[in-house]
Backbone:
C-alpha cells in the first residue's frame, strides 16, 4: 500500500490547522488592539 | 483604569482567595501577557516546525510500521495537548465555580475552540494512520471512542456557553459540564490498560520511561513541547483579545451613557 497520501494527509491537516488558527487568532488580536486604541483615543 | 472599566462586567465576584483575584485581574493579566506574546509565538513556531520537519524528513522509519510511524510526530502531540487542554478547561471551571475567579470563565471560553481543534487533528491523523495499519479509518475501540467523546465534550462546552441569553448562566452550565466531563480523562489514559484495545499501549510514560529509541523520541518530544507552546500562545492571545474586546465595549457603553 502506498503510504504517502496517509502521511501527507496527516501532516497537511495538522499544518493547515496550525496555520489557520494562528492566522485567525492574530487577526482577532490585531483587530481588538486597533479597536481599543481607537476608542481610548476618543475625547 | 483597565481594572475599573472591566470591574462591572468581569471583576471579582467573591471575597475568598484575595491572592487569586490579585493575579486574576484582567488588566494585570493583559499587562503581563502582551509583552510575552511575541516570545511565546516565536518559541512555538520554532519548536513545532523543528519537530514536524524532523519527524517528516529525518526521523528513521519504524522497523515494523515503516514510514506510517511518522504520523506519530503529529498525532501523539495533538493527543497530549487535547487532553492537557481539557484538564486546563476543568481547572478553570473549578476556579470559576468555587472562587468566582474573574479570568476563569474567559479562559475556559477561549480554551474550548483551541482544544477542540487539537482533538480534531488527533482524530483525523489517527484515522489516516489506522487505514494502512488496521485496514479501517475507524474502529469502536475504547481509546478512539473516549477521544471522540472528548471532542464532543469540547463542542458541547463551546455550544453551552453561547446557549443562554445571559452569558453568566452559560458560563455556569458550561463549567459544570467541563467538570463532569473531566471523568473522561482517566478513561482515555487508562483505556489501553483496562480494555483489550486495538490501539497500542502507552509508548512513553512519566514513570515507565520510553519504549522508543532516541532518534524517534527527540523529534516526538520537540514536536510535543512545540504543540504545548502553540496551545499556550493561542489561548493567551485569544484571552488578551477577549479582554480588550470587553474593555472596548465597556468604554463605548460608558461614552454612550455620558452622551445620553
Residues:
Amino acid at each position: 500500500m502506498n503510504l504517502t497520501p496517509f502521511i501527507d494527509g496527516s501532516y497537511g491537516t495538522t499544518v493547515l490547522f496550525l496555520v489557520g488558527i494562528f492566522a485567525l487568532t492574530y487577526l482577532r488580536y490585531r483587530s481588538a488592539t486597533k479597536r481599543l486604541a481607537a476608542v481610548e483615543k476618543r475625547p | 483604569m483597565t481594572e475599573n472599566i472591566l470591574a462591572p462586567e468581569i471583576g471579582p465576584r467573591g471575597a475568598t482567595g484575595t491572592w487569586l483575584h490579585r493575579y486574576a485581574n484582567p488588566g494585570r493579566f493583559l499587562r503581563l501577557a502582551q509583552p510575552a506574546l511575541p516570545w511565546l509565538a516565536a518559541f512555538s513556531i520554532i519548536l513545532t516546525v523543528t519537530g514536524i520537519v524532523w519527524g517528516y524528513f529525518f526521523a528513521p522509519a519504524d522497523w515494523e510500521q515503516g514510514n506510517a510511524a511518522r504520523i506519530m510526530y503529529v498525532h501523539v502531540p495533538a493527543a497530549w495537548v487535547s487532553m492537557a487542554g481539557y484538564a486546563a478547561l476543568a481547572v478553570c471551571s473549578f476556579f470559576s465555580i468555587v472562587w468566582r475567579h474573574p479570568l476563569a470563565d474567559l479562559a475556559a471560553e477561549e480554551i474550548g475552540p483551541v482544544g477542540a481543534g487539537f482533538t480534531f487533528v488527533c482524530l483525523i491523523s489517527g484515522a489516516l494512520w489506522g487505514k494502512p495499519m488496521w485496514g479501517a479509518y475507524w474502529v469502536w475501540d475504547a481509546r478512539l471512542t473516549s477521544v471522540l467523546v472528548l471532542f464532543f465534550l469540547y463542542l458541547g462546552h463551546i455550544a453551552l456557553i453561547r446557549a443562554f441569553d445571559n452569558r453568566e448562566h452559560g458560563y455556569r452550565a458550561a463549567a459544570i459540564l467541563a467538570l463532569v466531563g473531566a471523568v473522561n480523562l482517566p478513561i482515555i489514559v487508562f483505556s489501553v490498560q483496562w480494555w483489550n484495545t486495538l490501539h497500542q499501549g502507552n509508548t512513553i510514560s512519566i514513570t515507565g520511561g520510553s519504549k522508543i529509541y532516541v532518534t524517534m523520541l527527540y523529534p516526538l518530544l520537540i514536536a510535543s513541547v512545540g504543540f504545548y507552546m502553540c496551545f499556550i500562545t493561542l489561548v493567551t492571545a485569544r484571552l488578551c483579545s477577549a479582554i480588550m474586546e470587553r474593555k472596548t465595549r465597556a468604554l463605548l457603553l460608558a461614552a454612550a451613557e455620558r452622551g445620553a
Remarks:
- Helices of chain A lie at 4-41.
- The CA atoms of residues 14 and 20 of chain A lie 10 Å apart.
